[in-house]
Amino acid sequence: MILAISQLSSYNSFGQDQSDSNANNGSTLFIEFGGNAPLISLNYDYLIQTRKENFKYAFTFGTTHHFNKPLDIVIAPQFNTLIGRTLMAEIGVGLTIPISYTQDWVWIPRFGGRYQKMSGGMFYRLAFTPIISPHSNPSTFPMFGISIGYTFKCNRKN
Question: What does pTM read for this prediction?
Answer without folding.
Answer: 0.78
